[in-house]
């Protein structure tokens, strides 16, 4: 048996290679094989085995080298006729081809922004969760914001991928970079930055007048809210991001800035973005309003009904007196709809200042469909002492 | 082995026997170990001297915690003596590397549990490990040696059986076969008869005796069985609390006062017709009524 | 009793390698973007015969740039984890040992988290820091697991479990108190994820590391067989127990560290593949190590392909797939009383 195997072994390598190999294995042998003096010359079968392993290793490395040499071929994406080099909002340098005709969006907020800028027809792919506006659902889905499918993105041959730092992973960014697909990252941390980011996106993507007028409109609405709220002390609120466990918003988040613009002051002052809060702390702070953000009426109904059964929550003034505010989820998205959400919240907090636009909600079921559309000048839904009860 | 005649021949310390080559030389070997360094030693084996020749069956005898296993491990070279020497054919056992040692000394332990199932044949084949090298595969020669080892212990029929399925006595024979497959000069056994019934005990000791006589092994066993040691051994090393009290043939070592001091039970010693002593344990004595614990 | 010969080892490995090759071809074909066999065949021929310019862009992008590196990574990771698992089962003399029992994966996770906090922009930082974390854990557990200067199976196991718990607690603490948003990605990494894009040089490093460490373990394979019968017996049979344990410990931990730094903690592979290979090929480590390596590669490539295609375009992390498939296999093995 050993003899059978000896013959092919000698055919593989020349005599010099064999000597070199045995010499190098002798050195290795000092480390790994004991009692090497008795092993040289190596028995033929073991030598064959070792050579097989080495051949496999070399073969594997060669395969990798082959793949790399193919990969090293020039990419024909971005070295087209024209391209701009810009710095995106996360500090990366991106080379964007001009013009940009095929865009992939990696976040629902980005999709909304792009549609608001009038660039909806240039979007070739978006995430599974992009549902506003309704046309977004018709686009090719590329997975979730956290786990996009790189293959599908690559197959769409986008000119630019737009991502949002708050929801996308760094690893996805690296994967796309390595394929040579340009990726622009947005990272608005507050309302002002959101407007600046939207304007910049409009410029970069040649949205033309639509972009400029959109931003101007949004700024105007914001300044109107500012005007109406001038001189008023902010109302203390607690924003409930999640009920079980109780999660609220911390400093330096988008949501906190939006609350501030709407004339609310979050009683929770924490360094983490989404801190877990102890209910006792809330009881001590006694916010005037408790805010939920949801587009699902039944879920909110359930949650509010449940709160009645919790003795800890009943110690909150706001809960006993049913001072709840429910706003659209738009308030937590860094997209143009955010302004809608801020308006809603401001109108709910200071109904007197927004009397021309808001209507007091006394009958819940009727108002839900309008509420869900979350467009400007829709009445916001608020409980109050004098108001009706479900 | 059919009958006890072959091993009950008188074996006096004849000149012919003395002329046999000394294979193992234990000279003033002592050992002690403690839980931590600089702490008082937990146990000390004091300087012990004896010699074992080829074809000799030595029994290291003593009650529990007398240092028998420690002495055996000193002989095997697993631990080095604090003072003195243990020499095998002139080489100190503790200075040999593990492979060379394993080619000369085979140690039959009290068994360890097996994790993965293994067949008896493969188990015996492991005894060829000291003769192989890294990345080796067994040759026909190794299979032949393993086969003959199984034959020597009368366990060929167990070759394809799983180790966890055979009885205690059969397992002990397979373990002995593995030791024989090492083709050693010296066989060390640590209380091999511990969990066996009397028939299996006699069977094992007969085989060991046969191996010593016919195949020139030096067999050294550790035991606390007074009776069987006297029946089979050529030389007894008597240990008590770490001290070697006496070395010699059974007739010389089995003195009543000595044994009573060591084993702390009343007993009688008789000399059998073959020159080997027989021990009769007295059990309860009416004269000195000890209160029952 | 069938004697183990070199020929049997080579034939078994060849058989498994053939299965692996077939699975790789299938994995190349499947994915969110479909290809037909004819397309693939033509493009592969052009690739192999040295005409890379004729390959279609789509093919190059998806096959060569995305799928092939991912499959190669999966092969190395699967092989590394299986060999490490088989080795730990022998070293710790425990059939339930897997590569993560000594805390290497928790150390790597901590390294990765620290990298994400400190320098999230550099793609190479995460695997590098993870490997450093793994190396630090290997050293720490080694020093904790010694008794009388030698590695002791019982102490090693305890030291590993304690270290793993401590590191996991530290990770949880960091994740809840730190404000960085980049930590979101760590959840995927903790579950085991092959979608990381590595610079190609790193794949070479992985392969070399794998062959070096697995080769070292293979040289001690016959010693491991004897070691399984008991440590004292092994010593008396001529095995240099101290050296073997050290070599196996370091090599297997390095294999685990390499695998975990690039793909997170993919579970069940290191535990189950050796047992399945034992069922098929027997307990002899000279055969078990190479067959576990190839078997592990097969398992990971299958799991990864399923993870990529089951609910396309959404990708499941590989670890979720191995857990879903691994648990029933584990129960089945337990019932056959082989674990």
In this structure, how is the largest beta sheet of chain C organized?
2 strands, antiparallel
| Mean of all residue-level pLDDT scores of chain A | 75
Oligomer: heterotrimer
The N- and C-terminal alpha carbons of chain C lie at a distance of 22 Å
Question: Biggest sheet of chain A, strands in spatial order?
Answer: 5-4-3-6-7
Q: Identify the CATH architecture of the largest domain in chain A.
A: 3-Layer(aba) Sandwich
Uncertain spans of chain C: none
Helix residue percentage of chain C: over 70%
Helix and strand run of chain A: HHHEEEHEEHEHEHHEHEHEHHHEHHE
Using the 3D structure, state the CATH architecture of chain C.
Answer: Orthogonal Bundle
What do the pLDDT scores of chain C average to? 86
Form type of chain C: globular
Percent range for β-strand residues of chain C: under 5%
**The CATH class of chain C:** Mainly Alpha
Describe it.
- The complex is a heterotrimer of chains A (390), B (293) and C (339).
- Chain A has 390 residues and is an alpha/beta fold.
- Chain A folds into three domains: 2-71, no CATH class; 83-217, 3-Layer(aba) Sandwich (Rossmann fold); 233-382, Rossmann fold, CATH 3.40.50.1980.
- Chain A has helices spanning 2-12, 15-32, 44-71, 108-116, 150-155, 170-178, 191-204, 209-228, 254-261, 279-285, 297-307, 311-314, 317-320, 337-349, 364-373; strands at residues 83-87, 93-97, 103-105, 123-126, 140-141, 160-164, 183-186, 235-240, 264-266, 289-293, 324-327, 381-382.
- In chain A, the strands form three sheets. Chain A has a five-stranded parallel sheet, with helices on both faces. Chain A has a five-stranded mixed sheet with strand order 9-8-10-11-12. In chain A, strands 1-2 form a two-stranded antiparallel sheet.
- In chain A, helix 7 packs antiparallel against helix 8 and helix 8 (209-228) packs parallel to helix 14.
- The longest helix of chain A is centred in the first third of the chain and has 28 residues, at 44-71.
- Chain A is globular and about 80 Å long.
- Mean pLDDT of chain A is 75; it is low at 1-13, 29-43, 72-78 and 357-390.
- Chain B is α/β, with parallel strands linked by helices.
- Chain B has one domain (5-13, 54-75, 97-281): P-loop containing nucleotide triphosphate hydrolases (Rossmann fold, 3-Layer(aba) Sandwich).
- Helix content of chain B is 31%, strand content 25%.
- Chain B has helices at 15-18, 68-76, 98-104, 120-125, 140-152, 168-181, 198-215, 226-232, 250-253, 256-263, and strands at residues 22-33, 43-53, 57-61, 83-88, 91-92, 105-108, 186-190, 218-223, 235-240, 243-248, 267-271, 277-281.
- In chain B, strands 6-7-8-3-9-10 form a six-stranded mixed sheet, sandwiched between helices.
- The longest helix of chain B is centred in the C-terminal third of the chain and has 18 residues, at 198-215.
- Chain B is globular, with a radius of gyration of 20 Å.
- Mean pLDDT of chain B is 85; it is low at 1-11.
- Chain C has one domain (68-335): ABC transporter involved in vitamin B12 uptake, BtuC (Orthogonal Bundle).
- Helices cover 73% and strands 1% of the residues of chain C.
- Chain C has 14 helices and two strands; from the N terminus they run αααααββααααααααα.
- Chain C has helices spanning 6-29, 37-48, 57-91, 104-118, 125-144, 153-177, 186-191, 200-219, 221-227, 231-236, 241-263, 269-281, 285-309, 318-335, and strands at 146-147, 150-151.
- Chain C has a two-stranded antiparallel sheet with strand order 1-2.
- In chain C, helix 1 packs antiparallel against helix 3 (57-91), helix 5 (125-144) packs antiparallel against helix 11 (241-263) and helix 8 runs antiparallel to helix 11.
- The longest helix of chain C has 35 residues, at 57-91.
- The model of chain C has no long low-confidence stretch (mean pLDDT 86).
- At the A-C interface, helix 3, helix 5 and helix 6 of A face helix 1, helix 3 and helix 8 of C.
